[in-house]
Amino acid sequence: MSDSSNKLPAALREAHRQTLAVRAGQNRTGEDEHSEALFLTSSYVFKDCADAQARFAGDIEGSVYSRYTNPTVRNFEQRLAAMEGAEDCIATSSGMGAIMSLCLAHLSSGDHIVCSSDVFGSTVILLNNFFAKFGVEISYIKLTDVDGWRDAVQANTKIFFVETPSNPLNEVGDINALSAIAKQHNILFAVDNCFCSPALQQPLALGADIVIHSATKYIDGQGRCLGGAVLGSAEHIEPVRSLVRAGGPSMSPFNAWVFLKGLETLQLRMRAHSESAMAIAQWLESQSSIEAVFYAGLASHPGHQLASHQQSAFGGVMSFRVKGDQAAAWRFIEATQIMSLTANLGDAKTTIVHPATTTHSRLSPEERAAAGITDNLIRVAVGLEDLDDLKKDLQRGIKAL
Ligand SMILES: *Cc1c(COP(=O)(O)O)cnc(C)c1O
């Protein structure tokens, strides 16, 4: 809670990310447990009335109530903050809880937010249907159009919000260039880092002020729990923490414990997801019945250079267009036998989905066309199964075209 609890032990201050993933954010209890303890308790007992008064006031460290102080959640926050190179972190009930909390804490009526046009669908609904109700102005600009972002700035612009790489076409936003514009106008620059995770990209080091996570995806990595996080400087996180404390979109301690263990293997998993995705993207690109492949790891992708600079690998999500219409894309998807037909991603289990009729079905046909979400587009989030078996599964799809 207090600043001192964010400080890493001396030996960890210089440690590599993988060491932080395993060792940061462990605060052992008097039991000397080796693995991290799970505190399933909603409240805490005070030693005496003076202790209660001091803990309530935040004058001394110590838990009060698990909506805002839970040791397991705090351990997760500290570990993730260490991996992102952030001063502070507040965990939330979901990725959307993180985005909502950031916007509630940092926007007022009459403010303006600029958002990249290919963000997660619920982010658009949250802004358009709810924040707009309270007089927040919203502009959507293409992630790759740096001049467009410069032109979109108004006197009341308070937040830049981007998701990079984008879903499902893997477009890449220039974090450094956008951060320069944001800094010039005193705008808070937030990056949704869900697709890369801190294992592949650290937006704060590239100039962002805030990192958003849906821990539901790669941080869990096995599709069990919902959670999210907002990271940044203590100054930027304090109002978000205070919002979560008062408003209640807090992370469950059980989920925090799952995510804490997920972080330990995140880098190894991201490496495996990325290697398989790269192999599959290259293989698909060589298939005559595939029209185009969208994966920033491919030299043919327009975002390849930038992604190579910003990211240490290209992640697990890719998309491709089959030669044919919607019916052909559906036949391809339904012919696969190992991959799960689901819109989720960031799982050990490979998922396959038809964006035009699911994740992007709320867009009008014109909006979909402008975003490149054609009827013959398929998205695959490559999991951790054997690469040969995944290729065989995609071969079933190709045969069904
Ligand atoms: C899933 C997702 C979210 C929302 O996260 P939830 O945990 O489902 O609320 C936000 N951003 C991105 C990029 C996502 O993929």
From the structure above, extract its key features.
Aspartate Aminotransferase, domain 2; globular; Aspartate Aminotransferase, domain 1; alpha/beta; binds pyridoxal-5'-phosphate; 401 residues; 12 strands; 5-stranded mixed β-sheet; 7-stranded mixed β-sheet
Q: What is the CATH-assigned architecture of the largest domain?
A: 3-Layer(aba) Sandwich
Q: Helical content, roughly?
A: 40-55%
The CATH class of the largest domain is identified as Alpha Beta
Instruction: Tell me the number of strands.
Output: 12
Mean of residue pLDDT? 95
Radius of gyration: 22 Å
**Amount of beta strand:** 5-15%
* Bound ligands, each once: pyridoxal-5'-phosphate
Order of adjacent strands in the largest pleated sheet: 1-7-6-5-4-2-3
Secondary-structure-derived class = alpha/beta
Q: Between the first and last Cα atoms, what is the distance in angstroms? A: 56 Å
Largest sheet: 7 strands, mixed
Low-pLDDT residue intervals, each spanning 5 or more residues? none
- How large is the count of helical segments? 15
Globally, the shape reads globular
Reported by name, the CATH topology of the largest domain is Aspartate Aminotransferase, domain 2
- Sketch the topology as an H/E string, one letter per element: HHHHEHEHEHEHEHEEHHEHEHEEHEH
CATH superfamily descriptor of the largest domain: Type I PLP-dependent aspartate aminotransferase-like (Major domain)
Number of domains: 2
